[in-house]
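Much of what follows relies on a compact textual record of a protein's fold. Here is one such record, which you should read through line by line:
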Amino acid sequence: MDLRQLELLCALAREKHFGRAAKNCNISQPAFSARIRQLENELGVPIVKRERSFQGLTTEGELVVTIAQRILAEARTLKQSLSQMSKGLAGHLRIGAIPSAMPMMSLIKNPFCEAHPNITVSILSLSSAEIQLGLEKFDLEVGVTYLSDELSTNVESHELYHEEYSLIHKADGPLKGTKTITWQEAAELPLSLLTRDMQYRRIIDKTFEELDCFVTPHTQTNSITQLLHETRFGNTSSIVPISLIHVLRNLEGVVAIPLSEPRLVNKIGMIIAKREPSSPIAKEFFKHTKRLDVEKLLLEAGQES
């Protein structure tokens, strides 16, 4: 049994498909399947339920994956710690961020990467639930998400910025010249919103429900970019964070109208799992973002021309 076999198994558990897992691991599917069977033979237990396609993991397989995830995480931590001792931080940092925070990520990532040029970063757009699961399963080192009651107690967190909301609308639409709009007025408009698996959408739904407004979106998507396209090229409005508008600045063909009555504010923060040993890169990135004034960075981004 070696680390490569464990990497392949964890990829299979994540993708739930032999072909996709093999492709992501840069290995042919026959070779991938052979390595998984070799691992089963070495451990003396069936790991994968097989018929004509992947049917899931056996009970033994679930246990092997859980332990394999921990072994791989500790192996990465060992490499990072040894690298830090000899030549400074080096390795790969995997970050999961809620869609509304994605455009902001470069503001906090770029200074960190400039200070640590031997670090590479992957940033994935995920729901808040997917971020917490990714931390639990060692698929992520860092998350950027809502600091709310839905947050696990097994994470360490700190606040990055406050999220407030605006209605975005076609610049030449009927709301041209409107300075502010209430949530109740927004509920009367045809809207495009994120899908319900996103906490951002659940926050919006709860706000409408508390005002006795029940909205059926014209379009639903899990992509902030698609929301902007729906507004610019379609006949719907959308509700997006003001921070998004700051970062993207001049949204051609689209205007932002602040939402009021009520004024809705949510905390966006960074989270890492409470575990030892923890990733040196994740800990350093966590400390790096604590030193930043993200609210100020967002404001400055909005003021640049």
